[in-house]
């Protein structure tokens, strides 16, 4: 669905004065061959004159100004026969090779700038002459066809780039080739049995090919290579008279592979498609009649496969001229990308080059896209495609080199119709994709565009039949076509949008014009239409062209048409705008008659009728052939796509932004810049977002905006088929038409386009249209509410009036109920819709009302069943309506749930109604219902609620049933643990304390002694409360209750000894001592408890206050030594742990440096969940280091979730030999620091007392203080040694077992110091200075610590 449009034209002229400076006979120099030096960007041209060949050069792709567009002489070669067969640049060896018809092979060495570094060197010669030459694609081989016209020494010679002969074979060969097909005759008549008749009747005279050759055949051979250089084909004619021409395929080693089947009228032209699929040739139509062979003059392009078999054809469109006129195909040329086939045609009046393309695998119908004819001359001398740039065609006349660059362009019209036009010779194929999706090469309408020329025209009609450019307006489908000679035609297509049986379109001619500038080549037309007022419509036609020596110019015509009769012209205005550059491009505006022109540098100018464009509005970073402009938020946005695949946008006064660097097509519709990329995605960039970013960017001074700055990640994207390109967008049908690389079309409805259309419909109050669009494209109907909840709630009445159908309303309510809206919103919407439906027609919308009840959050089943009761009372004469409603609600809700809900309403008639229509077995529910009917009312409800597991409600009904059921209520409370509900129900009754007692006993059994004690106190059961307090070790409350209960003193002491022992076992020594003193009166036990808890200060105070003093010698002094011994033992244990772990850390770190592979391992954790192991013992892998498993034998085929969790717990457990051992040791050292701090506090409490006791105690105090200080220093030094590496980044959390294990695999390469933070030891002066000087201490201390 794309057309070929001309991008630029570069003309280099061979001036007569330049030739005369080289040779006296310069006027007869004719360009006969060209060659391309891709590395240097140089094009060589060879001219022939009498007895001499001249070599010239010019810039390849650089657009030169007119005054510099000339050739530079390089060298010459004198020869009596100056006919040139081939001119080629060998890039690898930097040589220019010339081959002449006389058989000479001449070579020039090339310099860095393309100049000759040597004179002409004849490296070889063929005495019989060279008729054809073809170089391989990589210049590694060259094939020569030798011989003379008398069919002598006709050979095919294969050489390498150094001209060493690799193979030489004759043209003619009797065998088919190495790939000859084998036919065993299965199914043929020759293998059948014919009885006595025999097979004699099967013999038929052989057909001869006499006089079936083309009259245009020059009898010369042609050679062509396949794109990969593996094969080449040679088209030759045999030396036998009237023999047909055949195509033979050879390998790159020169061995014959296959021979083409005989084709009558086959011509010399042959071209192998670079992708290797087909070999193209031409055929002059020869038809065998009963008496004679006659020819109708038609030419065909025929295709062969590599095995020589035919593979399709298409006919060239011969002009309607006199049969006596000369007409033949001179050559075929494939573009390097195999997309375009150029056909060089010679005619009596001149030459033309036709560009053909195929689509959708239809070779019989190819598109004739362009016809190129020589300006200021009638013949081309050479035609060739540039070897590197696939859309660049290089043509030469006798004195000019013309470089035409083409690009692919889609001619898409108004979005309302989705009309697309495709050029096909003298027809434009039109398809409106809004109503019809016709795949190419077919179309909805074929518009003929043949121009009738007058007798005085210089160029015949066949050179003008194909327009050079067509375009469609963005409004009203106005089609314009322009020819290179200045003929312009504009049609109004009158495309039918709505359904119907009439014509899909009915084009009428609006306007035609002959610009009449013979020296101007017109290459682009742009049409737009605007309804100025009710009296007239304005049609604007802008035609872009240029001359060889001047910059671009735009011829603009404004035609005022009647608004009622389009063909009636009210007036016409015309002006010409001169532009500041050459080979630019017009950019259409989607909303107005304004025209913009883009220069080759990417600058954008407004085309003004009054003066020349002076300053640019904005610019793209590079030239964008495809561009468009439109208004967004009162600013004009320009979007363009460059040949490099970069999509840009810019506005006036802002810097350009790059949207993507891999786009292959784009369009603008529905508020989006829609683009397809080479990564097979469709991007939808909101134009409002682009303008906002461009405005913000214009305030900055940095470089160009990148795609990340445009927030491309927030755009909607969708995957499409590989190589998809945009054809058009139809917002009315929310469709995007894509064309695949093979040519077929696909129409999709992307979510952004659908949502934009739905939002517009909702904003305009077109609820039905928006609803149907969401339903058709499977969009959650909750978007109708989410878009504007307030507007929807206010317009519910109109929404229901437009939707109207019950099924649609039910679908809407169901979608709302299943959406992610908040529960309040869902309930509000359902209630509002339900109330509106009840107001309008309860009888019609009963199912929708039931749906509104059911889909609420939470569902209101009881209200729905209540509605059924209401219906049964209202329509008692129409039971079928009630029956339908019951069946519908059973369809919405599970029947068992409805049965339970009806039962919970205590209405047995409703229960029977649901059960009967739910097809429940009566044997299941009738006995149960009979049993319930026989019970008292409240007890009946108790049984129903108990059945429905509504236990609290059941308990309340059981209470209402009377006091006779109190014991059953107590059992029910205990069974379902309804203690709090029972207390609330029986509060302020005689049974309240009974319930409290049951509650307290239950708490006591659960060992919640504190709560149980409070409940027993509330129930006035103090004895049980005391037991509960004792179990909870709440000794204050216990002894307070013992005073209220008046417990005997002996029993109080017994309780005191019992609870004090429990407190001591829980290491609550001060509390135990307090109980011993206050309630047991036992000072010795109190002092003993305090000494055990290292509370010596309090113990000494108790002894001095209550006595006896003997406790100091009997309990405190020995106890202090015992505590010191415990602390010393704990310090030794911590010191031993530190030494072991520090030594192991040093060992691990040495291994990590010396043997990293062994330490870390290299196994992939992603493969750990795949059981491919056998029961054979295997070497340990890196994964076994996580578990240090003693064996590697596979025991199970699949890990369960429990096994996985167990495995995760093992990871990081610190077992020796695992990768997590180092981290485990670090964590253990961290815990050791905390343990050291606790021990330090205990030592600090003990030292003052050891200082004041005996000499033995003082010496022990010195020892324990020194041990503590030494261990503290040792621990500090160890921490500094261990934690030396700086911490880095953190690892993200994983969300699955496999990912967590993979994270562990990655984390093992991270230093554990980065995962375990360094512990901090607090610095405090906890020691006693006197103990650091032992002599002073011994002199000043008394025998018992007193002076």
TrEMBL record:
Domain ELP1 first N-terminal beta-propeller residue range list: 79-388
Role description: Component of the elongator complex which is required for multiple tRNA modifications, including mcm5U (5-methoxycarbonylmethyl uridine), mcm5s2U (5-methoxycarbonylmethyl-2-thiouridine), and ncm5U (5-carbamoylmethyl uridine). The elongator complex catalyzes formation of carboxymethyluridine in the wobble base at position 34 in tRNAs.
Protein family according to the UniProt entry: Belongs to the ELP1/IKA1 family.
Domain ELP1 three-helical bundle: 1115-1282
One record GO biological process: tRNA wobble base 5-methoxycarbonylmethyl-2-thiouridinylation
Biased composition (Basic residues): 1196-1208
MF terms in GO: tRNA binding
GO cellular component, one term: nucleus
Pathway participation: tRNA modification; 5-methoxycarbonylmethyl-2-thiouridine-tRNA biosynthesis
The organism of origin for this protein: Pisolithus tinctorius Marx 270
Subcellular location: Cytoplasm; Nucleus
Listed name of the protein: Elongator complex protein 1
InterPro entries given in the database record: A-sol_ELP1, Beta-prop_ELP1_1st, Beta-prop_ELP1_2nd, Elp1, HB_ELP1, TPR_ELP1, WD40/YVTN_repeat-like_dom_sf
Keywords for this protein: Coiled coil, Cytoplasm, Nucleus, tRNA processing
Residue ranges occupied by any ELP1 N-terminal second beta-propeller domain in the UniProt entry: 422-727
Main location: cytoplasm
Domain ELP1 TPR per the UniProt entry, residue ranges: 939-1101
Residue stretches making up the ELP1 alpha-solenoid domain: 822-932
Segments of this protein annotated with the region Disordered: 1190-1214
Annotated coiled-coil segments of the chain: 1124-1151
